[in-house]
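Researcher: I'd like a structural prediction for the single chain below. Treat it as a standalone chain; there are no partners to consider.
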Amino acid sequence: MSTSGGGGPALIEFSSLYRAYARDVHRFALFLSGDASLADDIVSETFVRAWHARSRLDLATVKAYLFAIARNLYLQQRQRTNRLGPLDERLADPAPGPHDRMRARQDRDAVLAALRQLPEIDRAAVLMRADDEMPYEEIARVLGISVSSAKVKVHRARLKLAEGLKTREKEGEKEAP
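Model: Treating it as a single chain, here is the predicted structure.
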């Protein structure tokens, strides 16, 4: 294939080369890959590479040259694909992702806000029971109240916290797109 310095005849010759062989190269790539989309990509890349080597093209062997380029591109793609494999589930990072961490931080902030809404004695009672798993008898002794009063305070505080968190979740659902 000859080229001229102006590029005009070479472009005409290259476009006729494309028209003459693109279907054959596509069919070949499709038979190799079994994937029409991949075949399209291979044809495109084949002719880009042929364009870059246009000064060295020999019209007598151009079809074989194009098929060789297409085959090499297919083999390269297959190598890349073979290197990609399914991830081993055992290698997954057990740490929570950014979305989960953000949600946990929001939940923590909501619990703290709900706790701040409780009277101090109720907050102290529920924290001693929930956080330290302190028996009601000790909670009552620390707060200077009866055991039954300590149980009522913990129960009511839990209800208020749950109510506050449900309200927060409903507000969050309204804000979510």
